[in-house]
């Protein structure tokens, strides 16, 4: 019993220090995720589907033009060079996992292709 409590205490300390560490380092996308190829072609149909989801779910924070609403979605500016320089895989990862005030959409927008549609739409901003 005692050793179980000790184990739980150590596990908690590790979990907290890891989450602090990842916060310190900013939003790091694992190389393997950044390298994932977008399986959904950037067609008008995909972009339209992405736009519909964006308008419903993302616009309130990121704004209609993708530069952010108020102070909420800064430092994300989807029209910036930094943002456009990322791979589709990295953007997909960020939409899926979230970070800080950015929600994780992996379980909210369940189908992978719906999240790839969002990536395709963000590319048009
Ligand atoms: C509650 C407000 C909120 C909503 C809703 C939201 N986001 Fe975000 N998003 C943020 C914030 C804040 C950040 C910046 C996080 C950080 O870097 O600390 C962000 C960052 C991002 C990034 C990373 C940008 C970069 O510079 O690399 C992407 C991509 C993104 N959001 C996509 C989306 C998509 C797609 C949706 C809708 C499915 C969405 N967001 C909904 C607040 C939001």
Secondary structure category: mainly alpha
Fraction of residues in β-strands: under 5%
Q: Please, what is the CATH homologous superfamily?
A: Cytochrome c-like domain
Number of domains: 1
What does this structure look like?
- With 125 residues, this protein is mostly helical.
- It has one domain: Cytochrome c-like domain (Cytochrome Bc1 Complex, Chain D, domain 2).
- It contains seven helices and no strands.
- Helix 3 crosses helix 7 (112-122) and helix 6 (88-97) packs across helix 7.
- The longest helix has 23 residues, at 2-24.
- It is elongated, with a radius of gyration of 17 Å.
- The model has no long low-confidence stretch (mean pLDDT 88).
- Heme C binds next to helix 4 and helix 6.
Protein topology:
Blueprint: H1 2-24, H2 31-34, H3 44-57, H4 59-62, H5 81-84, H6 88-97, H7 112-122
Helix pairs in contact: 3-7, 6-7
The chain binds heme C.
Residues 27, 57-58, 60-62, 72-73, 75-76, 83, 86, 91, 94-95, 99-103, 105, 118 line the site of heme C (HEC).
């Amino acid at each position: 019993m005692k050793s179980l409590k000790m184990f739980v205490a150590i596990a908690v300390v590790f979990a907290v220090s890891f989450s602090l560490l990842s916060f310190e380092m900013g939003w790091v996308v694992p190389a393997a995720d950044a390298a994932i190829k977008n399986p959904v072609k950037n067609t008008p149909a995909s972009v339209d589907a992405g736009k519909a989801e964006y308008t419903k779910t993302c616009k309130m924070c990121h704004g209609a033009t993708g530069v952010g609403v108020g102070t909420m979605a800064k430092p994300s500016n989807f029209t910036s060079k930094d943002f456009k320089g990322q791979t589709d895989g990295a953007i997909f990862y960020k939409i899926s996992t979230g970070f800080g005030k950015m929600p994780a959409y992996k379980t909210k927008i369940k189908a992978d292709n719906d999240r790839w549609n969002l990536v395709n739409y963000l590319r048009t901003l």
